[in-house]
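Late entry, evening session. Most of the bench is empty. Finally got around to the prediction I had been postponing all week. Sequence below, unchanged from the version circulated by S.P.
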Amino acid sequence: MLMYHHIMPAPDNTIAISPTQFDEQMRYLHDNGWHAISMAQMQSFVLTGARLPAKPVLITFDDGRMNQLTYGVPILRRYGFTATFFIVKKWAESADPSFMHVPELKGLVADGFDVESHTANHWVLNRKHGESYGTLKARTWDATYGMRVWMGSVLGAKATALAYPGGFFDDFSVRLAQEAGYELAFTTLPGYVMYDHQSRYALPRRNTGARGTTLSQFVSVLEGAEGALRPPASQK
């Protein structure tokens, strides 16, 4: 599972790559038989071990940045790939032009991309020192469950997956994601999703959108992934 944040012509932070780099990565996927999968396919695999296409990859973007739409989406379309965008309500409703807003997000949904939850406010979901689960739930319920309601009513997106803000999570976060109705939750921990191998509320991703990522590093990530997303032996 691949993770990106910024796609920009002159990367200016550690979680940004250029359109040229992103195109190089997507072209490699396309030319070497990789298949971008939807969140529904990932969910079916994680929950039931359902078959996936050969060499499957889940492409994810965090935060809902406008540069993902401007530079990333045309490249995805060039190679016939789908992707998942984890978005934040407060940024989608803001006047900040660096984020996608409701019209752009609805357009992604209409075009068949997955738009999922990165919470309503991008607050971390793990406990504060000495905090009870009830207190954490009270202060984050609108950010998690309320976010799902907003996405359904405003964007027409059935949010079934959550990306933890900042990648921070603990046992309270896992319980909260489950009670808020998410089927899957994603971290920023490096690793590969394997059937019946890790909690569906603590799924790993690989940061292939870090500044300076070379094609050889990208290929190395894929080589590690090739054996992970496989069905159970009984379904082969």
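Two things to note before I forget:
The radius of gyration is 17 Å.
The helical segments are 19-31, 39-48, 66-78, 89-92, 102-110, 133-155, 171-179, 215-225.
Will write this up properly tomorrow.
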